[in-house]
Write a structure and sequence with these properties.
- The chain is of the alpha/beta class and about 775 residues long.
- Helix content is about 35%, strand content about 15%.
- The chain contains 24 helices and 26 strands.
- The strands form 7 sheets. It has a 6-stranded mixed beta sheet with strand order 11-16-15-14-12-13, sandwiched between helices.
- Helix 21 runs parallel beside helix 22.
- Bound molecules: beta-D-glucopyranose.
- The site of beta-D-glucopyranose has 9 residues, from loops.
Length: about 775
């Protein structure tokens, strides 16, 4: 293809003149963009870009995976870099970014060694532009051994505590930076409205407000210290847009998303993240309404750049440009795929296993298929990011960051987060907390599994290899034994989630003879992305059968669920006394579970999703009125929102009563504010944390309103017997919805505000 230039000299001259013209125009517009990044940064970037060859620019837009530079490629186990392969990538192909690991986490020291070699090599390039390395630290630093893992986002959402989200993200940033890595592919801002989807655990659940609020808390924590500071990393909001709602529920399969729905439920989190200062964005690997998002100029340029005002770097997801050609079939050649994606607005390609993108983009530019202005725009954004991260000042691991790795206080924070995530779903006859002197049978596949407590992105991509977890990680069995003494604990569980011994109901029945209570640990082992696809949301039959065996013993059964998404337990739930939703809550999951079960911690987590009864009953909490009230013919199921446990559900060992809901006015006018106050009393006998949630309902609207929308929440700490007045301030933006013209509006009329079992109404005028 490259010989086209010499075959056609006339066209070459025309193209060349055009090329010079476009370069000049684009460099002028670039400096305008770069000025927004701060004057001295922008001047430096513009200067560098003006010196760069096309090859150098395209190299900056190329991101390859670690296997490309690792000794033995994908077979590499120990993080050894192959110097020749490194030179091929960084010097010969001028690669601007590297990501990922090959097999599993490496030590912080090893990462520093890798980073040092990479940056040394970047000094051998003409312009000595440093390389930016990215990793997925989605619930703590995934790929560094002995890093601190926090609850997954779904569990963080259960805490209803943005301060914990913030603090966990800050630790991830510090541990990344201590490993020499300055770019984090987090947070996931996809809204979890399809529980089948295997990445549901990476979301903040089904609610838009929660995603906006917690997602932006994470972004601020990653970036707010200033990217040059060795406590900060560049965040990456992902996966823009509509990734979480595939029609089949399977990862990376098509979504059909009307724009009104997209703007109501999926875009607001990204709008908020842009405002919070996210430096980069990763694109959804899937397609919406038949358009792969990597080729969607409307979403990437018109909405993201122009409407949301995002100035940062847009990176593809894994291999997604190639897939425009070989999976989505919208580009007839690999080069057409490259041109399509770059013209749509992509700045950097996670190629990631070869240099095809580099070659093809150079060809595409030379053939006039991609304008030089787009290349300059992309490179300017990439270099601005590198400059803001201080990579041009010092690209090497920073000595002052090393002590920020694995600090003892992180363990306490991980425990606090796991504690607050624990969500008590059922507590019949106050079966919980358990007595520490009772004889306990601990059973089930999750009882001796570390990976079933941590989930995806935990030392390996899938997170399902216990051997890479820190040596002091506890299983549920160990944490319970430590708490009540091994003599009080019997178990039938063995290591290995899938070991057949874990499902032996007869063995369980025999062992239960000596026990007063059975703690049954069921749920899901770790999975990530497509390997987590499932045909069935019901708990697997072998787990249900084990639960039935436990129930048949007649002993009280307490169910601990370690799972990333709601697996149906409807069949066994009526016979279970207590149910604790533990999610995948990270390093301290087991300790937190044991603390709640034996009363050393009073649970306060609230479900961030509706826990459905069955496949035919998947209705979300912010349902429309016609989902709520069904017409009844012979159908005896007339109540449309009928989950096993609703969104926001979560019990405590104490009780909270609400009274005296008051509004500052019965009318909210224009841009004024309205204060809503409610008195909350801890009417039980234990101190406890409690989240007060405020929902609104637009009574009549131009399109069917939602039955309820979460608009605010506050977490409070009340001593037994104590009362507190809790206030919220609302304005018209808190009541808005997307109308039929796709505008976000607040229409005049009656609104309800609902807190706990209390309700008040006012008029918006
Ligand atoms: C995932 C992304 C991740 C990337 C790099 C992809 O498969 O979809 O979320 O950031 O890999 O690891």
């Amino acid at each position: 293809m490259r010989c086209y230039v010499s075959r056609n000299a006339g066209s070459y001259t025309r193209n060349f003149l055009l090329f010079i013209f476009v370069c000049t125009v684009s460099l002028v517009s670039l400096s305008v963009f770069a000025q927004k990044a701060g004057n001295s940064t922008s001047q430096k970037v513009t200067e560098i870009v003006s010196k760069m060859t096309l090859e150098e620019k395209v190299g900056q837009m190329t991101q390859v995976t670690f296997a490309v530079i690792a000794k033995g490629g994908w077979g590499n186990e120990d993080g050894t870099v192959d110097p020749a392969a490194l030179k091929t990538a960084v010097v010969d192909h001028r690669v601007g970014s590297i990501l990922n690991t090959t097999a599993h986490a490496l030590s912080a020291e090893k990462w520093r060694e890798v980073m040092t070699m990479i940056q040394d090599e970047s000094k051998n390039t003409r312009l000595k532009i440093p390389v930016i390395y990215g990793l997925d630290a989605i619930h703590g630093q995934t790929y560094t051994l002995n890093s601190t893992l926090f609850p997954q986002s779904i569990a963080m959402a259960a805490t209803r505590n943005p301060e914990l989200v913030r603090a966990g993200a800050k630790v991830a940033a510090k541990e990344l930076r201590a490993s020499g890595v300055r770019w984090n592919f987090a947070p996931v801002l996809d809204c979890g409205r399809q529980p089948l989807w295997s990445r549901f655990p990476e979301t903040y659940g089904e609610d838009v407000y929660m995603g906006k609020y917690l997602g932006s808390a994470a972004i601020k924590a990653y970036e707010e210290d200033g990217l040059k500071n060795p406590t900060a990393v560049a965040s990456c909001m992902k996966h823009y847009l509509g990734y979480s709602i595939p029609r089949t529920g399977k990862d990376r399969t098509p979504a059909y998303l009307p724009e009104i729905e997209m703007r109501e439920y999926y875009l607001p989190q990204f709008r908020e993240a842009v405002k919070a200062g996210a430096s980069t964005l990763m694109v959804n690997s899937g397609e919406i309404n038949g358009v792969p998002v990597h080729a969607d100029k409307y979403l990437l340029t018109d909405v993201l750049r122009k409407e949301l005002g995002f100035q940062g770097v847009i990176v593809t997801d894994w291999e997604d440009i190639k897939r425009l050609n070989d999976r989505h079939f919208v580009a007839s050649t690999p080069r057409a795929a490259v041109a399509m994606a770059i013209n749509a607005g992509i700045d950097m390609s996670m190629v990631p296993s070869d240099f095809s993108f580099y070659d093809l983009l150079i060809e595409a530019v030379k053939k006039g298929e991609v304008p030089m202005s787009r290349i300059n725009d992309a490179v300017t954004r990439i270099l601005t990011l590198k400059m803001k991260l201080g990579l041009f000042d010092n690209p090497y691991p920073e000595k002052e960051s090393f002590a920020n790795f694995g600090r003892p206080e992180y363990q306490a924070l991980a425990l606090e987060a796991a504690h607050e995530a624990m969500t008590l779903l059922k507590n019949q006859d106050n079966a919980l907390p358990l007595s520490k002197t009772a004889k306990i049978l601990v059973a089930g596949p999750a009882a001796q599994s570390i990976s079933a407590l941590n989930g995806c992105w935990s030392y390996t991509w899938q997170g399902n290899q216990d051997q890479w977890y820190p040596a002091d990680s506890k299983t549920i069995l160990q944490a319970i034994s430590d708490k009540i003494g091994a003599v009080n604990v019997i178990t039938t569980s063995v290591k290995g989630f899938d070991s057949s011994a874990n499902y032996d109901g007869n063995k369980l029945k025999t062992a239960a003879a000596d026990a007063g209570v059975i703690i049954l640990c069921l749920g899901e082992n770790a999975y990530a992305e497509s390997p987590g696809n499932t045909r069935e949301l019901a708990l697997p039959k072998n787990q249900v059968d084990l639960a039935k065996a436990a129930i048949e013993t007649g002993k009280p059964v307490i169910l601990v669920l370690t799972e990333g998404r709601p697996r149906f337990i409807t069949e066994i739930e009526p016979s279970i006394k207590g149910i604790l939703m533990a999610y995948w809550s990270g390093k301290k999951s087991a300790e937190a579970i044991a603390d709640v079960l034996f009363g050393d911690y009073n649970p306060n987590g609230r479900l961030p999703f509706s826990y459905p009864r069955s496949m035919g009953e998947i209705v979300l909490y912010d349902r429309k009125p016609t989902e709520e009230v069904r017409e009844v013919f012979n159908d005896n199921v007339s109540h449309g929102y009928d989950p096993l446990f609703p969104f926001g559900h979560g019990l405590s060992y104490t009780s909270f009563d609400y009274s005296d809901i008051k509004l500052s006015s019965s009318a909210l006018k224009g841009n004024e504010k309205l204060t809503v106050t409610v008195t909350v009393k801890n009417s039980g006998s234990r101190d406890g944390l409690h989240t007060v949630e405020l929902y609104t309902r637009d009574v009549y609207a131009s399109i069917t309103p939602n039955m309820q929308r979460l608009r605010a929440f506050k977490k409070i700490n009340l001593k037994a017997g104590e009362s507190q007045a809790v206030s919220f301030t609302l304005d018209k933006n808190d009541l808005a919805f997307v109308n039929a013209k796709l505008q976000t509006v607040t229409e005049p009329g009656e609104f309800w505000v609902m807190i706990g079992d209390k309700k008040a109404s006012f008029n918006y005028q």
